[in-house]
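Internal tracking record. Fields below are filled automatically when a chain is submitted to the structure queue. Please do not edit lines marked as system-generated. If the sequence contains nonstandard residues, flag them in the REMARKS field before resubmitting.
Queue: standard
Priority: normal
Entity type: single polypeptide chain
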Amino acid sequence: MANYWERPKIRIPKSKSEIIWDIIGYSSYFGSIILLLVVWGMLPDQVPGHYNAVGEVDRWGSKWELLILPLVGAFILILMTVLEKFPEAHNYPGRLNESNAEQFYLHSRKLVNQLKNICLVIFSLIELESVSIALGWSGGFGVWFLPVAIIGTFIPMIIGILKQRRIK
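SYSTEM-GENERATED OUTPUT FOLLOWS
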């Protein structure tokens, strides 16, 4: 079963955890877009455009740059949603067979779902941080944001690898 087109096509309903992750990710994504629409007229011409590793603004740019994060988020949302729908196309170890395919597919699809929604939350938080700084609501998230974002992205991958190794 080396080629994905030879793998079984199995319809597996969304799990409760996938539904919860989607609610979290989509809510934060669409919430950040709504926030941006609500405050757009109040935003100054210059907003934070980039942050350094300790969370300080190191470049200011046009408020139009704030549209980049929702656009990238939309791309990730569409791409990873499509990937979720075709778990047979994901990369699997050679031990994948008809008896364990459903376990592998569900596990892989859950991981893609988690990563998609974590990305949406991270982009939403960056959008919120930029708007907050631009409007003087806060000084930003500070030094903890980057490490938490990185750890929050890698933990599901590490757990996913460990869980996948247990599938017989």
